[in-house]
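lol ok so funny story. i was supposed to be doing the assay writeup but got distracted and ended up predicting the structure for this chain instead. priorities right. anyway since i did it might as well share w the group, maybe its usefull for someone
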Amino acid sequence: MSATPDADPGSGSFRTVADGLFPGVFLRGVLMGAADVVPGVSGGTIAFITGIYQRLINAISACDLTALRLLLRGDIAAAWNRFDGSFLLVLFSGVILSALSLARLITYLLTNHSLLLWSFFFGLISASSLVLLREVRSFDLATCAALMIALALAVSLAVVSGSSLPVTPLGFFVAGFLGICAMILPGVSGSFILVLLGMYEPTLQAIKGLEWVSMLCFVVGCACGLLAFSRLLRWLLDRFYRVTLAALTGFLIGSLPVVWPWKLSASEGGVDLVVSPARYAAESGDSQLLFCVILGVLGFAVVWLIERHSVR
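and the output, tada:
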């Protein structure tokens, strides 16, 4: 990654990633959408390791009252340029297309080949955590504290069973508002937040069944959450870049237990128990260890190759 840890996040080094390369931006959106469908995987992680994260945050946070006033005055071109409209349009086209097309496939894989799917994503997240850790560059008391606190918080989220929201238009709105805040954070899975809220399956079903009212409420919630949270995140990155990055790294590392392939159902409810492949094989059948290792290594290699080819 070319930007230094204390570089100005709005500098040209971030903005040149996708200028003139909109097929690449669309592909990044497809990857983000695919990641956001799966609990434990963050689309924000994909944005970060492919070099568009800061530009994404800057563009979203620029959708403000100034942009609205420009639109109301009829100066559409100025408003469009202010919030990097072409970039957002292409990126979110990829995200939406990917989410709509992959929802059914991901549901099938989770049901029929869960060990292999989670192994692949475990490799993805493991590599992503190393990429982010390298970006912190140097550690002091503040960055170490941020990393450890975020790590503890992520692990605590992984062991919380959560409570369900009502499957109503308001429930979809709240799920979208809270889920999107996590989706734009590297290491924090919006889909996992939906699992905690009891809205993951209803949301997937709404997408697969094209339930337009539910989908609209969810999208409006996402839009409101994006506009609110992106400003806070941009402020933190502008003023406390390394500390914020260390916290995001902690979230990413702490999410690894969520996507560990070999789990046993808890005997009295609650979260599943993380176990070794050997124990899983002894209690639940074939652990598919060889294929899982191959897919885990493949996932690790995919992230590493993406990151290496994103160097500018």
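The first helix runs from residue 12 to 15. Residues 1-20 have pLDDT under 50 and may be disordered.
back to the writeup now i swear
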